[in-house]
Amino acid sequence: MEFVSGFRYICGFTILSLPRDHALSTVRVRFAPSPTGYLHVGGLRTALYNYLFARRNKGVFVLRIEDTDRSRYVEGAVENLIRTLRWAGLEFDEGPGKEGGAGPYIQSERIATYRTHVEMLLASGKAYYAFDTPEDLEGMRKKQEKLQVAVRDYRRAMDMPAEEVQRKLAAGTPAVVRMKMPSGETIAFEDIVRGVVEFSSDGLDDQVLLKSDGYPTYHLANVVDDHQMGITHVIRGEEWLPSTPKHLLLYRYFGWEPPRFAHLPLLLNPDRSKLSKRQGDVAVEEYRNKGFFPEALVNFVALLGWNPGDEREIFTLEELEKEFTLDRVGKSGAVFNADKLNWMNTEHLRHKPDAELLELTRPFLAGSGITDVPDSYMLDVIRLLKERVERPGEFVTTGIYFFRDPESYDEQAKKKHWKPETASRVRQVLSAIGDLASFSPGDIESAVRTTATALGIGAGTLIHPLRLTVTGVALGPGLFELMAVLGKETSLRRIEKGLSALG
Ligand code: GLU
205, 246 in Cβ contact below 8 A? Predict the structure, then answer.
């Protein structure tokens, strides 16, 4: 007997050697994505709930890569996944590159273990070799479709004499290992989210456990790993609910105590269909590239299925770590509302220190070919636009007039605010502004208001056309502050240019 970080190895397989209550006192959860190339927002939610559950319970958050489907292997997918999780702030405690005693954490590096476990099931008569060809399986599928009853012709392999099985295997006949399902049994378990869930074993296929390429299926690898990694709670999407009875049977066949399960509600499009690419972005990386904040995306997905029990909607990750409990996860599907995500992003932007926004905006300036903008100038821009933008990139796009003279003028605004008498009035205010020795917002304001009073008009009659000349657009931050930031020279140049362009 050999002790390795709380696990005991017996006959080549692992069982938890700690007393059960002690083992359960340390929460161990895992996020177990298949590396498909990008992280789905649903995957981010699963990762987040596992992370939060671990943090809240002072447990361990494991990242395990489920890459046994070699046909779906994507180069660089694991690195991208880890990078994306880190971007979101979800640091794992154990996983690839972070050994914790239960590794390796990449399934393709654990193939020998799965083989050993398949051998155990074969030896105890809980699994069997089947030699059906793809054509056989297709035939079964057609027959099933026609007869509308479950067709399990692959079970004929169970009656095959052991010598014949050995002969076929020795001859290299392609074979899979299937799990024997009991008949006429109800498999019930208490899901933390859904309550008692029951399945009839008669509805379950004899699940393939080992494929003909020697790789395990998801079901076998997932159960073996959850057990070997000491996982206490499996928190995953509802789409895995139908797999759970198979997993529970595997736990029973191996003589292991199963973890507790919590199946998270489906994510839905606004039309309540299953969340799909067709109706918007589903990759976390796409939101990242669009300039969404990790805090906002995390906040948003946290509320897809969980609620704090009151009206609050804006949470930081730290706040979620304190508040998250599985008993506040609902059963019904959660609608992915992109408008709400935009709103949350805006809320998080408003809460960010200007200095952080400065850092976040720099790449967008560079991307637009705008160089040599001093930090102090950019901080002024951020201060004035903070309440008006939703993403860092918009400090540059919405606020382009802070960096470039207008090339054109908003047609609607022109129609509304540029009347035949406007030009002479603007000329008057231009000269008042030109005389200013100091160019503070207050100075500019009093010059504009004094001119308006002298002309016998409201200040607004001057402010709108002035804004049009200075920015080219109808809306923006307070004009006096804006002009003060642009400076006297730029403001005067633009007003003159506007006067000749607008006539
Ligand atoms: N590899 C599965 C996935 O891609 C894991 C499902 C589970 O958590 O059991 O989601």
Answer: no
